[in-house]
Design goal:
With about 1000 residues, the chain is an alpha/beta fold. The structure holds flavin-adenine dinucleotide (FAD). The site of flavin-adenine dinucleotide has 34 residues, from β4, β5, α13 and β7.
Length: about 1000
């Protein structure tokens, strides 16, 4: 009875609360009246365009993309061209834009000029609507006006995308200049709400700034958690000092989820720093669309109590919803956000409850444009008797004028979040706001353009959720759609460094592996370890006196033994049912997953791979195992060919025989594993020669296959010196196939030797050779440099440029050249170089002394053929070479033609896009390429004319993913089908056809003549 009583009371209280919220909501809407936010006001260009974009999704995408590129369209010609490319061809483009295009006539220069001018002006005005001022004096003037209307403010400096430390310093400078201006101005501002305390509403500092922390350290990355927190804090402290000096408030904004834990830790360190401990006006934002938000709020409140440090939380739903969802799906992570809007609304109210219940230690800033969410705060605060000075309301400047006015009337404590700064940076902000305003789920859209029923708008989130469930609308297709291909294949998830457990696993694995260094590794032939007297030391390239392993080297005798063993094993293996063969690959994948961090650690130490590079390599190895196994299942069934009656034709495959796999050191597990797995699953037996620079990682592949229980002799581990056993292996008459990945010189040599056929050889040797590249990335005149610069740094210098897919030529259009180069050089100056085991180092050592020597020779050549514009200091111990950026290189230069395999980048200036394509295609290689462009026509042209195996638009040239981007090139980049693609396995087999005449004296099996 008592239990029912408690429950009933709760229900009654809840319904009383809901009743009061409804009343409040009605009052709110009465205050709003018929007024519309200017963004939705159809009397204006913006309102019309917004209306059209909400009615027409493809137009919305084009429009927002056009807005995104607009600041880069600095000439009449580019503006006109883009307008035409984006809008002229679409029949559905609303009259608001098309009118101008049609009547002026695309060809008419004058018309185009006029149209371009009008569209630019209108879009710039649209952006300016959200920006409080471009300069400090303008900002101060406009803030004064807002304060006169009764609004407080928090300022945010636009341009948070900093790609270099210089830009991060400049960003801090902007804040400091702004704070100087505000310090002076605030002397003359009367406090809001009257009184002479000098505080708004009697308690709140007048100057309030919001800071995006990732902008304060260009190299911030969750893998380097400590480094990121430390560096951001270094730049945040002077800002905070200034804020304290003028008695202001500082709020740390929350950004993408990858920075969340960094930001929380940053806040805790700042708030508890001896210098700021006694200063209460420091806050941070918490995003409730994250499923972890309840935990986040609780943790912050607990911390506040434990430390006896009052805190302030700005509760927001979160501005990166679409981004987080897409990113999680692309990376194979669980979706971190709620996927039903009402779930986020409910989390918001739970967060409000929790903070208001703890109002003695936590101040609440309710940041929302949702009437229901704000009314909930008002009524909940009343119910809990929370004093006014413990909560306030915040809205975005320019977002919802009638809403903010009504909110002010009802609460008297409204703060506007005011971005300030340059229009260029403002465009990215504008897109975020437009996306938010035009999303189907947006409260503002539902209120002001769809006129949704008031009761519905004010409905409690749990009721809303129940209703959606009853209507079957509580599922999000984007979040739930299965990503597995028909065969059931999905890529191994990428590493999520936000997870402290992942970071810990890396450290632990490296420590563990270090305990195992220096062991001796034997060959493995016919299921047995075989030692030889010839042993080489494999060393850590960052610390050459550290021996990773001592590896026995095969001579001709051992190669012959391995071939004999493979021949024997082949008799059984080739007739082992393909499905059974696939099981070994699936098992090996399982083992690799279990030993993932250990496998990474070996690569970090033996190959000098950074954490994420090593992880990607291991994940790719797992992908190859899973993908090829599934592909084999599809290929295993004999296919019936033709449909004529009386004849049965079956098409099927058999393995070629013995395969030599000659692997490189740069993807020491992934490429080895890919080539071996393909050969094994198709029924061949393998003689595997790992690279002499990474034989210990090669041995880990052997361990995977042993643990998977692969039958004896199917896989033989035969490391050896190329000079001793290389030709013997390649020339061996019993080999049917050679799978090779490595340099062009060695590849061509193998192809040539494999083409010689001695009389005792029974089949023509097949060679699959992936050889190299001289890959170009084109920077078009409208490229987004915020994206392009970091991606070029990554493609050119990631893993020290030692990838066949690495960018070694960046071809830049003249009009953007100087801007690009300046930012590229600043970004290059910002990266840290050192041992790969320290996650704060972006770049490490090259693989060995001989590689270093060759790269240094190319650096000398760079100085002769062009002008070196950037080089840097490198650690003394280890095989390091500096990042080298060289200008003035022409297509005929050796630097533009030869693969260097190191961090040397040529920057080449071209006059137009056509020339860029010509130069990109001007080498003997055709492996990868990329373009940063926002011109649909240029991208279309490149699809056709940029002739490489893997072409990427608006992303870097490295990082192909199994199945999604089958990898491999042509010309001198290699022969054979793409790895990780649907044709790859076919190369390891011979097709056969068996035809049976099924008609005997006119009698034909019934099923053959059935329709
Ligand atoms: C003063 C102020 C400061 C801000 N600071 C930050 C900040 O530091 N960091 C930050 O990320 N954002 C910040 N924002 C932006 C804020 O996150 C968005 O403006 C806010 O999410 C919009 O919510 P709303 O209540 O106004 O509108 P509503 O229309 O009620 O909510 C829209 C929000 O719901 C969520 N949503 C939309 N669709 C779904 C779905 N299908 N499933 C689940 N959830 C969904 C998204 O978060 C979306 O933004 C700030 C906003 C203000 C006003």
């Amino acid at each position: 009875m008592l239990f029912i009583g408690v429950q009933e009371r709760a229900v009654m209280e809840n319904s009383r609360l809901e009743g009061r919220i409804l009343e409040r909501g009605r009052e709110f809407f009465r205050h709003i009246g018929d007024e519309k936010p200017s963004i939705f006001n159809k009397n204006w260009w913006t309102g019309k365009v917004m209306d059209a974009s909400m009615a027409n999704e493809p137009f919305k995408v084009q429009l927002f993309r056009f807005i995104d590129v607009l600041p880069y369209l600095t000439t009449e010609e580019t503006l006109g061209r883009h307008l035409e490319e984006y809008f002229a061809k679409d029949e559905n483009v609303p009259a608001v834009l098309k009118w101008g295009i049609k009547t002026t006539g695309i060809g008419g220069r004058l018309g185009m000029k006029l149209l371009g001018k009008t569209v630019r002006k209108n879009i710039e005005n649209m952006a300016l609507q959200f920006i409080v001022g471009g300069t400090v004096p303008e900002t101060v003037k406009n803030l004064k006006k807002l304060r006169e209307q009764g609004f407080a403010f928090t300022l945010d400096v636009l341009g948070e995308t900093t790609v270099s430390e210089k830009e991060a310093d400049e960003y801090v400078e902007c804040y400091l200049r702004l704070l100087e201006g505000l310090q002076e101005a605030q002397q003359d501002w009367p406090a809001l709400g009257g009184g002479d305390s000098g505080f708004d509403w009697g308690h709140a500092p007048q100057v309030n700034v919001s800071v995006k922390p990732s902008a304060l350290y260009s190299q911030a990355h969750p893998a380097d958690f400590e480094g990121s927190v430390g560096h951001i804090l270094e730049r945040l402290k002077p800002l905070c000092r200034k804020v304290v000096e003028l008695g202001g408030f500082l709020c740390i904004d929350t950004e993408m989820r990858k920075y969340k834990e960094i930001i929380f830790e940053l806040y805790r360190r700042l708030r508890s720093d001896a210098e700021f401990k006694d200063y209460p006006h420091l806050g941070l934002a918490v995003q409730v669309y994250l499923k972890e938000s309840d935990k986040d709020v609780n943790a912050l409140l607990d911390w506040s109590r434990q430390q006896r440090l009052p805190i302030s939380i700005r509760l927001v739903k979160g501005a990166y919803w679409d981004y987080e969802l897409v990113l999680a799906r692309q990376n194979g992570w669980p979706v971190p956000t709620y996927t039903i809007k009402a779930q986020t609304d409910a989390a918001f109210e739970r967060g409000v409850d929790k903070i208001l219940q703890n109002h003695d230690t936590c101040h609440l800033a309710c940041a929302s444009h949702n009437v229901r969410s704000c009314c909930y705060v008002m009524e909940k605060a009343r119910e809990l008797k929370v004093p006014d000075d413990r909560y306030e309301f915040q809205v975005l400047f320019g977002m919802a004028e009638p809403f903010r006015k009504a909110l002010l009337k009802m609460t008297n404590r409204v703060r506007l979040y005011c971005p300030q700064g340059k229009l260029l940076a403002g465009m990215a902000y504008l897109i975020r706001r437009l996306l938010e305003n035009t999303s189907n789920e947006s409260f503002l859209r539902q209120t002001f353009t769809e006129g949704r029923q008031l009761e519905r708008l004010l409905e409690s989130p749990p009721t809303n959720l129940e209703r959606l469930a009853a209507e079957g609308k509580d599922k999000s297709p984007l979040a739930e759609i299965t990503l597995a291909s028909k065969s059931g294949f999905t890529n191994e998830p990428f590493v999520d460094y936000t997870n402290v457990g992942v970071r810990q696993s890396f450290y632990e694995a490296i420590t563990e592996v270090k305990k195992q260094l220096g062991k001796t590794y034997s060959l493995h032939i016919k299921g047995k370890d075989v030692s030889t007297a010839d042993i080489i030391d494999s060393v850590n390239p960052a610390q050459p006196n550290q021996v990773i392993g001592r590896v026995c080297q095969a001579g001709r005798e051992q190669v012959q033994d391995a071939i004999t063993a493979s021949k024997e094993a082949f008799q059984t293996w080739r007739d082992t049912p393909p499905r059974q063969r696939t099981q070994y690959l699936f098992k090996a994948a399982e083992v690799a997953r279990r030993r993932k961090y250990e496998l990474c650690a070996w690569q970090v130490l033996e190959a000098g791979k950074q954490w994420n590079q090593a992880y990607n390599d291991v994940a790719e190895a797992i992908d190859f195992l899973e993908y090829y196994a599934r592909e084999m299942i599809a290929l295993a069934e004999p296919r019936k060919m033709g449909r004529v009656p009386g004849e049965d034709n079956r098409y099927f495959y058999q393995p070629k025989g013995l395969a030599a796999v000659i692997a490189p050191w740069n993807f020491p597990l992934a490429i080895s594993c890919g080539m071996c797995a393909a050969a094994i699953v198709t029924g061949n037996c393998v003689i595997y020669k790992p690279s002499h620079q990474t034989p210990v990682v090669g041995h880990t592949l052997l361990q995977l296959f042993i643990e998977a229980g692969l039958p004896v002799g199917v896989f033989n581990y035969v490391p050896g010196r190329g000079s001793v056993m290389g030709d013997f292996l390649v020339d061996h008459p019993d080999l049917a196939l050679i799978a090779f990945t490595g340099s062009m010189e060695v590849g061509l040599r193998i192809i040539e030797r494999a083409g010689r056929t001695p009389p005792n050889q029974s089949s023509v040797k097949k060679v699959i050779a992936e050889m190299g590249g001289k890959n170009a990335v084109i920077i078009d005149d409208d490229a987004d440099l915020d994206e392009a610069v970091p991606q070029i740094i990554d493609s050119a210098f990631g893993y020290q440029g030692q990838k066949c897919s690495a960018c070694s030529r960046v071809i830049v259009l003249d009009t953007i050249y100087d801007r690009f180069l300046k930012r590229l050089l600043d970004a290059a100056r910002s990266v840290k170089i050192g041992p790969a085991e320290d996650p704060s180092n972006f770049m490490g050592p090259v693989i060995d002394a001989s590689a270093r020597k060759i790269i240094y020779e190319y650096i000398k050549l760079a100085g002769r053929e062009g002008k070196i514009v950037y080089t840097c200091e490198v650690p003394e111990v280890g095989y390091y070479v500096p990042i080298t950026i060289v200008e003035g290189i022409m297509p005929q230069h050796r630097l533009a033609q030869e693969e260097i395999f190191g961090p040397v980048l040529s920057v080449m200036r071209v006059q137009d896009f056509k020339q860029a394509l010509d130069w990109a295609n001007s080498t003997r290689f055709a492996l990868t390429g990329a373009i940063f462009s926002r011109s649909p026509e240029h991208l279309q042209l490149a699809r056709q004319e940029f002739r490489v195996g893997n072409l990427y638009f608006n992303r870097g040239s490295t990082g192909a993913i199994v199945e999604r981007q089958p990898f491999g090139g042509f010309k001198m980049s290699g022969v054979g089908s793409k790895a990780g693609g649907p044709d790859y396995l076919l190369q390891f087999m011979d097709p056969r056809t068996v035809t049976e005449n099924t008609m005997r004296r006119g009698l034909v099996p019934v099923d053959e003549i059935a329709p």
